[in-house]
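Hi L.,

As promised, S-adenosyl-L-methionine-dependent tRNA 4-demethylwyosine synthase:
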Amino acid sequence: MPSAILVPLAVAIYYAAGGRLSIALAIGVIGYIVIYESKKLKGTTGQKTVVGSEDEHNHEHTHTHKHKHKEGGCGKLCTCKNKGLKPKKTLSALKNKKGFGQKKATNGSEKDMAVDFTSTFARPTKVSSADREEPAKKKRVPKIIKSKGAARGIPKTTWTKAPTSLLDSNIIIFYSSLTGASQRSSQYLYDNLCAIGDLKNKPQLLNLDEVADLDDYFIKTPDLENLVYCLVLPSYDVDSPIDYFLETLEDTYQDFRIDKYPLKKLMGFTVLGLGDSESWPEKFCYQAKKTDYWLGKLGGRRIFPVGEICMKTGGDLKVHEWISLFTDALKDDEPILYEYIDSDNEEDSDNSEASEKSQDTLVDVEDMGKMMSSSKEPETTSETKQMVAKNSPTYKSLTKQGYTVVGSHSGVKICRWTKSALRGRGSCYKFAFYGIRSHLCMETTPSLSCSNKCVFCWRHGTNPVGTNWRWQVDEPDVILEGALAGHYAKIKQMRGVPGVVAERFAEAFRVRHCALSLVGEPIFYPHINEFLSMLHEKEISSFLVCNAQHPDQLEKLTQVTQLYVSIDASTKSELKKVDRPLFRDYWERLMRCLDILRTTQSHQRTVFRLTLVKGFNMGDVSGYADFVEKAAPALIEIKGATFCGSSAGNGNPLTMQNIPFYEECQKFVVSLNEELNRRGLGYGIAAEHAHSCCILMASNQFKIDGEWHTHIDYPRYFELLRSGKPFDKLDYISKTPDWALWGSESAGFNPEDTRVRKKGKYKKLTT
């Protein structure tokens, strides 16, 4: 104890003892002994123990015990939760252990052992592949692939007899014709078959170009017994509907989801090819040969050789000769020589002996190519065709209908509303809904081909069709300049028409709007984005219409002024009936397009276009409401179909009874609006144009301060484009005029124009 404390303590004890020195000294000695013994006890009995805690982490604690513990935990006197546990051997505990780090004595029989800890935690060095000892590799021997050839005992060909007479068959005659020769030949075949008295069933005559769904005949096949297909096909140097037919057959064969031999149900087939061996010797009847090839690959049974007739040298006489031979063959019950071996394996079977002799050798690559050559389809031209070649039947048909064909796959046509606006007699519904003056609008398309065959289409199947772009591609600048030139040429033709307003005639030579909705599928054009950019550079607004069958192109689409998507039915069965799509997965494609409108293209002015056809798609509105809920379009156009005449036998059943009255369209729109509001989707009926039988619904986003703003501020739109900054559909809206609003007295007709009524009690001019 320090002296600074002992001296005052001794003085205090002395006075406490009443000044008696002996008592004070005794008390001091006793206190000193107590303090000394206490320190000694702590040094000898204080035990420092390391135990494991419940979470298995080490901790140290010190206790003073009355009893010594040689091993184990602290015992009952310990307040730690881990009492009774054996202490863990840690590095700190080992250091405190007696003899740690000292060399242990050894006798003579034992050798000293030194342990080097310097490399214990060093990173192991990599052993090079050269120093590593590897087992000897087994020598690789090329695998020899042998041709099995034809099975022994089964001939390559055999004489077979049909299970029933060919006279008991149901014969369907297909033809495709642009010039009339094939139609004439197929009609002659039909008449000759009908003249056979023993023929049990009357044959059918179908135009292959106008079949709504080829799968109904070349995958499923009609539910008729003993079916026989007769195909009368020409071969054209230009693109024709047969190209799509052949593409469909090949896709069917390559599609793993479809039965490999869907035509095995047929009793048989035959093909009659018509061509020109003098003008195109290398392409003579090549499409008929390819059809014969693919029908055989799909499991069809060839009952008569393919006919190859030159219409220039043989003509109808040779056609009649072939038909006569075919009808005689139907009456003959003699067996038919039928090949069991597929054409892909003919070369293997022919060379089976050579294969057996060369089992120990590999097949040379060049020889392998020769072996595979026989499995290829008939050698034909690989030249890429033009979609609409000049002077082709399709070209002549389109120009006769008033089109100007631009390049090889585009077209432009002046709209009847353009003519009406030039004469001051009103613009189309786009003026009432969006502010487009018809005499400033050009209607064009960069693709005359379409992937649908809609029943209400005004082309009646005369335009090309396809699911893949298989034609030559024109540059977008060529298309744009050609379309403008063609449009202006047609405007010039109006200068002598009575009633043309001079001011509007002059304005018409400066196109301000472009409706990409003429015919075909504009989004199908491979360079559609570049074409749209060129329009916008000229400050021409773009209104693009697509059929919701090309989701990949829709997702990649750049900025457009307004994006339309045709929604022509609310159910899968109705869509197939109305649009007659060429894609087999047409419904899945539609669903993908709806998702894209809600996500990738949500910033655009998206429009649902519903074309109502009575008896086809004017049923329950709930299906359309489901689509609106899924895609969330900005606007919805509902328009009654326009009757454009019927084409006998083309699968287009529309008559005037299928064209809805305006009152029926109004009733449909009111029902749809009620359903959307019942679901809380927030839409309303904004505008109408009774003259076009068209009504516009819009999202409530376009209703500002109780007034509809469906028109477009075009200068503002191009200003936003030039800025290069992202913008939304609501950034370039404009107020809808009162005369265009739903329920207005004008019903969407501009009061500045003169309305002409040519029918009924209103047969007069109305201003």
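The chain has three domains: 1-51, 157-340, 401-760.

Thanks again for sending the construct details.

K.
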